[in-house]
Automatic annotation (TrEMBL):
Name under which the protein is recorded: Uncharacterized protein
Lineage summary: Bacteria, Pseudomonadati, Pseudomonadota, Gammaproteobacteria, Lysobacterales
Top-level division of the source organism's lineage: Bacteria
């Protein structure tokens, strides 16, 4: 049972799926932040989200297709 659970965590397909979900959540949060808050207040948070999005995109590009 443990070996099955461990292999699921290492499967690139599952990892790609999880990263794509997280990427979608980040993009929705960024869009919401841009449309509802004053940009001066949100710049620092928006930069953090964009940095995280870039790291996720990089991780996705390293996964096998």
């Amino acid at each position: 049972m443990m070996s099955t659970a461990a292999s699921m965590n290492l499967n690139p397909l599952f990892l790609r799926h999880d990263l794509m979900i997280e990427l979608g959540r980040l993009e929705m949060a960024m869009q919401d932040m841009r449309s509802t808050t004053a940009m001066n207040d949100a710049n620092a948070q928006l930069q953090q989200l964009e940095s995280r999005r870039a790291r996720i995109n990089e991780a996705l590009s390293r996964l096998p297709a």
